[in-house]
Write a structure and sequence with these properties.
MetI-like fold, mainly alpha, two-stranded antiparallel ribbon, 14 helices
């Protein structure tokens, strides 16, 4: 049992790390909040103090705001659906005794370590190119016309790119959960005559509930800030402009730091609302 003296020493030792982490997080947030109440356009030499909530009103009143939020939620929902369903399927498959199981698991997890920019470039040039892409050659082999993915179905294409990158993460978490399942339950259900589908619905899926909610929570936090994949592929065009990309446009293209900062604060508020909602779901599942 830790004594009061040892606990005090532990607090002293972790204090520098806590201060650095708080500074790392709070300083940019406070600066963003500060600039959101100013008309700051450095390229034009404009710096007007204390414009109140004017930047927030302009950002919320923009015709692009609701479209960007809607696009963000579609990308989030589509990516979560693919990664969770695909992750469950791959986790069950990888849990089976197959030849070269370790190598297969490494290959499945590998895409998660690819940088988003590189991932988007690979899919744009090697997979989705309508002339030289692998998918174009597959289509041609079946006698079908090649699809210009990033032009015809740009939103779906980006969802596929993001899902490909995050599918290994979901698979790894769900595979760990499946391996913790008591095999005697499955054997008993099989002896009672339960088929694969009833066993999955009644035993495996309830056991994965906690892992699924954790995957959804963690992925949501990161997927709300999708940017690199959009920048590399469509640059926000063709209905793929998310809230994060809209903020980038306001700061970089319009050179309006104040307006972009207001958008950043609104994005933080939206992300926290979604995160709190998901945390409640996770908490309920963990309490079962």
């Amino acid at each position: 049992m830790a004594t009061r003296h040892s606990r005090g020493i532990a607090r002293i030792m972790i204090t520098p790390a806590v201060i650095v982490l708080l500074g790392w997080m709070l300083v940019p947030l406070v600066m963003t909040l500060w600039f959101s109440f100013h008309d700051y356009r450095p390229q034009r030499g404009i710096y007007e103090c204390c414009v109140g909530f004017e930047n927030y009103a302009r950002f919320l009143g923009s015709s692009s705001f609701l479209k960007a939020v809607f696009t963000t939620l579609i990308m989030l929902g589509g990516s979560l659906g693919i990664t969770v369903i695909g992750g469950i399927f791959l986790a069950i498959l990888l849990n089976q005794p197959i030849w070269g199981q370790g190598i297969v698991r490494v290959l499945v997890i590998a895409p998660f370590f690819v940088m988003p920019t590189v991932s988007a470039l690979v899919w744009k040039n090697m997979m989705m190119d309508p002339v030289n892409g692998i998918l174009a050659h597959v289509w041609a082999a079946f006698g079908a016309e090649p699809v210009s993915w990033l032009t015809d179905v740009p939103l779906f294409s980006i969802i596929m790119i993001v899902s490909w990158q995050w599918l290994p993460f979901a698979t790894l978490i769900l595979l760990t959960a499946i391996q913790s399942l008591d095999s005697e339950q499955l054997e008993a259900a099989e002896m009672d005559g339960a088929g694969p589908v009833p066993r999955f619905v009644s035993i495996i899926l309830p056991h994965l509930a906690r892992a699924i909610t954790v995957v959804i929570l963690i992925e949501t936090i990161f997927l709300l800030s999708i940017f690199a994949e959009i920048f590399v592929t469509t640059q926000g065009g063709l209905g793929t402009k998310t809230l994060t990309y809209l903020i980038y446009e306001r700061v970089m293209e319009s050179q309006n730091v104040g307006l972009g900062s207001a958008g950043g604060i609104l994005a933080v508020i939206l992300a926290n609302i979604i995160a709190i909602f998901l945390m409640r779901i996770v908490g309920k599942n963990l309490d079962r």
